[in-house]
Amino acid sequence: MTSCRTLLSIFATLLIIISACLLFYPMGYLYATYENLYGEWLQFSAFVGITVFSFLIVKNKLQAKLWFWYVLGVAAFYVAGEEISWGQQFFGWTSSAYFQANNLQGETNLHNMFTGPYKTLLKEILTYGLAFGIVAYGVLFPLCLRNKWLVAIKLEAWGIPAQPLCLSPIFALAALFELAVFNFNETEVAEMLIALVMCFFAAIIYFNTRAGVASGEGAINKKLSTVMVVLLVAAFSFTQLSLHSSTSKDRVANRIEAGVKKFAGRYARVGAWDHAIDLYERHLSYSPESRSRLRRLAEAYESAGYMDEYQVTIQKALALDLARLEEDRWRASLHRSLYKTYRVLGDYESADMHIGRALAINRDRLAETPNSASAAYSFALTLELVGKKREAIEQFRRAVELNPDRRKYRSAYRDAIY
């Protein structure tokens, strides 16, 4: 087996870049790890690479036992297809009614039929099972083989090839990231590492044994570097096509906007207020008169000690709230918004008055239209704000039963449960 120096250099460079983005350039980290962007397309390209090299190994019969490469190639092809929802994320077609109703993200894939952006027992089992599998194959198996443990020797004899032991730290990191202990999208980094390391492993087997002649270490290293360049070029090209294609650019732009909000909240959670403020400001720029975005930005300013900016921002939110209220005093959503704004301002008396009005409007509307899904949904949102979680879940459930096709209702119901 060729030297690991080239591979370790590649992975070290990749991890340093990702870490630097996380610490100093949040938008760079978002582009490196978020859906439909460079990191996910790099994963896709690597899984395609695994499929190609596995096919070449099988086609040229480069191993004594080929079943592992059959399984790996098919599995990689499946994962690559699932990563892009079998082309939907690029071509942008609408999911069928079945997938819209049963897929947790409304996409045309199978894995989100069981797991999604919600904490469930099944998701926890799959996460820990995958992390254990990564450690077992990438760390324990080569370590046991090095120490000549009988079970490892038998596994290799059955046709399971072992990774070079020097790559075990990559597998260990991937397992740690898979557990999402930091909650900064590191599961995407884990998938990227596993996809790349398995792609390189298949490439090494192919380059080192094709035509029955072992290649020199220098030649292998050059070829591995070329594989990495090809994968990076492919990831860059696919991302640019996604960002500019008429069939996907709007959906990708919406994903980026949602990602900016999500990452702003994560930086706020760990007290990295300057990064959180930068992202909240960017999020506000997409919709400058959004009262919810103004409130989040104001809270970040206040937490960071920027009191002048806090006052300007929250007063703008209040002015927008009051202007909307003048147009329609009988909308519960406007009173909910004022409740939130006054709480950020510290005026709890006014906040309580408006949440009381929201509750009264919700109850009256539900009494008038008991079979209205939107009325049940609005009532649930108000109940959530006053801490009545059980009642809120019941109203979310009623909204879903009355209008099961509305994804917003289903998502809110799942969020309330999990």
Strand tally is: 0
Distance between the terminal alpha carbons, to the nearest Å?
Answer: 47 Å
pLDDT < 50 runs, ≥5 residues: none
- Helicity, as a percent range: over 70%
Note the overall shape.
elongated
Main β-sheet description = none
The number of helical segments is 20
- As a percent range, the share of strand residues is under 5%
> If you average the pLDDT, what whole number results?
91
Order of helices and strands: HHHHHHHHHHHHHHHHHHHH
SS-derived structural category: mainly alpha
- Radius of gyration, taken over Cα atoms and rounded to an integer in Å: 26 Å
Molecular structure report:
By secondary structure, the protein is an all-alpha fold. It has helices at 5-24, 26-33, 38-59, 67-83, 88-91, 97-102, 121-146, 150-157, 168-178, 186-209, 217-244, 249-269, 273-286, 291-304, 307-327, 332-345, 348-368, 373-385, 389-402, 407-417. It is elongated. 35% of the residues are buried.
Give me some keywords for this one.
418 residues, 20 helices
Q: How is this fold's topology laid out?
A:
Layout: H1 5-24, H2 26-33, H3 38-59, H4 67-83, H5 88-91, H6 97-102, H7 121-146, H8 150-157, H9 168-178, H10 186-209, H11 217-244, H12 249-269, H13 273-286, H14 291-304, H15 307-327, H16 332-345, H17 348-368, H18 373-385, H19 389-402, H20 407-417
In short:
It is built from 20 helices and no strands. With 418 residues, the protein is mainly alpha-helical.
